[in-house]
Amino acid sequence: MSVTCSGSFPDLLCGEDSGIFTGESSPACSSSDLESSASIEESIAGFIEDERNFVPGFDYLTRFQTQSLDASAREESVAWILKVQAYYNFLPLTSYLSVNYMDRFLYSRRLPDNNGWPWQLLSVACLSLAAKMEETAVPSLLDLQVEGAKYIFETKTIRRMELLVLSVLDWRLRSVTPFSFIDFFACKLDPTGTFMGFLISRATKIILSNIQEASFLEYRPSSIAAAAILCAANEIPNLSLVNPEHAESWCDGLSKEKIISCYRLMQRLVLNDSRRKQPKVIPQLRVTIRARMRSPCDSSSSSSSSSSPTYKRRKLNNYLWVGDDKGGSE
Q1: pLDDT value at position 65?
Q2: Residue 85 C-alpha from the chain's centroid
Q3: Half-sphere exposure at residue 3, Cβ-oriented, CA atoms within 13 angstroms
Q4: 151: closest CA among 297, 315, 306?
Q5: Mean pLDDT across the chain
Q6: Are 176 and 51 in contact (CB under 8 A)?
Q7: Residue 160 pLDDT
Q8: CB-count exposure of residue 168 (10 Å: 0-12, 13-18, 19+)
Q9: I want to staple 71 with a disulfide (CB 3.0 to 4.6 A). Which of 36, 64, 187, 198 is the partner?
Q10: 293, exposed or middle or buried, with CB in 10 Å at 0-12, 13-18, 19+?
Q11: Radius of gyration of the chain (CA)
Q12: Number of neighbouring beta carbons within 10 Å of residue 45
């Protein structure tokens, strides 16, 4: 759900196809666009009103801070999602939705603490669902498990996990994300459209570089989008003096305090200190585990490749397959 300053304004629900993620320059805001600005701002205000329904609860971040949830496991899962996104050249929205589904699921359901494979299974299922929502060409469930995946799951196992995720999310996959706002905010910041292409492209990279950081779970998508656009503007001399406090005026419902707080956090973590780069695509061996699970709920075919010295190893079709002669165990 995104809008642009082009003629696609009326088609709000199909704005994902407008090419805003390609980094190409966007046209300037036309007079016809400006004439309909009131209805557009009303639609954006509706997104702001609805966004609270597509994020985890307010105490989700606290669970990581108190170590009730494993922040390092989440960071590792998000890093893997970003690697696969880069590997297949998925849309940025696809990776963001994947993480959004994962966070919303974790807020409602607790994963078993079992050597990390539940996190991997959840990551694959959420990425698969997001890809089906946004991509025109989706790899098979087996081919999706690349880029350092520690466990390889059977198709039927992933599909069962997908159904569980859908059930927990109440089938609400069309989420409000920062990408629902960034082109509109870019138009507000640069009405002439001179720098819109750069603003949108740079803000997109900033948003993706931050989704691993649990601290940003405190902020809603609109605040993240506004902060990212402001950070991108800092790199343009003509826009670098924009006052972040003015961002609140871009649309009704925006929180000045949250935008400024998020903006400062982005500056510190991304622009001034530890700017993260897009994940490198490094070919990895695919490892699969054939194991008999102890219960239907644990019906993954995966197990750690180093969990038993009795494993027989054999190379087949350039992949390393690990089998347990004794039927395997978790």
Answers
A1: 87
A2: 10
A3: 24
A4: 306
A5: 76
A6: yes
A7: 95
A8: middle
A9: 64
A10: middle
A11: 21
A12: 15
Structure tokens given for 1: 């759900």
Structure tokens at 163: 């159904």
Q: How does residue 125 score in pLDDT terms, banded at 50, 70 and 90?
A: very high
Count of Cβ atoms closer than 10 Å to residue 53 Cβ: 11
Q: Is the pLDDT of residue 14 over 80?
A: no
Q: What is d(CA 29, CA 20) in angstroms, rounded to the nearest whole number?
A: 14
Which amino acid appears at position 298 of this protein?
A: D
Residue 223, pLDDT above cutoff 50: yes
Tokens of 284: 């990895």
Q: For residues 122 and 111, what is the distance between their CA atoms, to the nearest angstrom?
A: 9
3-state secondary structure the chain: CCCCCCCCCCCHHHHHHHCCCCCCCCCCCCHHHHHCHHHHHHHHHHHHHHHHHHCCCCCHHHHHHCCCCCHHHHHHHHHHHHHHHHHHCCCHHHHHHHHHHHHHHHHHCCCCCCCCHHHHHHHHHHHHHHHHHHCCCCCCCCCCCCCCCCCCCCHHHHHHHHHHHHHHCCCCCCCCCHHHCHHHHHHHHCCCCCCHHHHHHHHHHHHHHHCCCHHHHHCCHHHHHHHHHHHHHCCCCCCCCCCHHHHHHHCCCCCHHHHHHHHHHHHHHHHCCCCCCCCCCCCCCCEEEECCCCCHHHCCCCCCCCCCCCEEEEEECCEEEEEECCCCCC
Burial class (CB in 10 A: 0-12, 13-18, 19+), 44: buried
